[in-house]
Amino acid sequence: MDKISLYILPLMIIGILISGIIKKVPVYEEFVEGAKDGFKVSVTIIPYLVAIIVGISMFKASGAIDLISQAFGGLMQKLSIPVDIIPIMITRSLSGSATLGLFSDIVTTHGTESYVTKLAAIMVGSSETTFYVLAVYFGSIGIKKYRYALLTGIIADITGIILAILAARLFFLASIL
């Protein structure tokens, strides 16, 4: 399997080149056109990326995450959900890198075998960065009306959070108790 993984990408590239030559497609010219289109898309999405990055930075710097964690801390304790998981719940739909940073903090603080770390790992893997996807992908092709996509994404994120909690309880909490 290691040998296959080493050669799969070069073989794919060679296969594409041979296919292009057989079909008499100007491969280099098509590649350059694709690169130009990719650059145009990159320039198009820069404002959306800047907006989402600034929004996330303001959200974190303002202390809003800490305030939300404090506000819902009591409810989380009543539901037997670790309070340390609240920042991951908040940031997951906003930013993957911010969520991974928070996850890294949880692993460092609680260790790799703790319930909160396992719950956080499931949560990180069970949802998408909805706002980032909407900003980048919809922005790159000029979609302005994404109300239903936003609603669907938020519902999917909430569902992912709930199912992550249930899965962590099912697989890990019983072994701890």
Verbal overview:
This protein has 177 residues and is mostly helical. Helix content is 81%, strand content 0%. It has eight helices and no strands. α5 runs antiparallel to α6. The longest helix has 35 residues. It is extended and about 65 Å long. The model has no long low-confidence stretch (mean pLDDT 85).
Low-confidence stretches: none
Count of distinct strands? 0
Number of helices: 8
Question: What is the general shape?
Answer: extended
Q: Strand-residue fraction?
A: under 5%
Structural class designation:
mainly alpha
Mean pLDDT metric: 85
Q: Supply Rg.
A: 22 Å
Biggest sheet details? none
Measured distance between first and last alpha carbons? 40 Å
Query: Helix proportion of residues, in percent?
Result: over 70%
Helix-strand string? HHHHHHHH
